[in-house]
Design brief:
By secondary structure, this protein is an alpha/beta fold. It contains 4 helices and 6 strands; from the N terminus they run βαββαβαββα. Residues 11-69, 78-135 form the CBS domain. Pfam families: CBS (PF00571). InterPro entries: CBS_bac, CBS_dom, CBS_dom_sf, Diverse_CBS-Domain.
Length: 137
Amino acid sequence: MLKSVKVRDYMTSDLVTFTADMDLFRAIDRLLTHQISGAPVLDEHGNLIGLLSEGDCLKGILAGSYFEEVGGTVASVMTVVVETIDADADIVKAAEHFIRMRRRRLPVVDEGRLVGQISRRDILRAMQKYNEHAAPK
């Protein structure tokens, strides 16, 4: 049953991360280079302090162009209210959260510490694998 499949089994643990003081265009370059739509923002101690998404970057660029001041830092545009999911949560809970909250990704924590990130694509991968092994043929 899918409720026995844990987030930790399908999360990405080799994360691209940002710092709050990173130049916005450098962060955009990393998003594009790694072909990802967003990533966690960490402080100097490795604590999760925000998320930076493509949408955040677009808002920052548009706001900056309005004032003819394109650029800035990750901190100036990142989302600071961060929803997370526990590494031991089941995949179904993660899928429900993605649908209900219309999110693309969630940082994964274990005892309050960032250990990875799970995306909608990761959930689909888990469900595909489950279907291959559990569905009647």
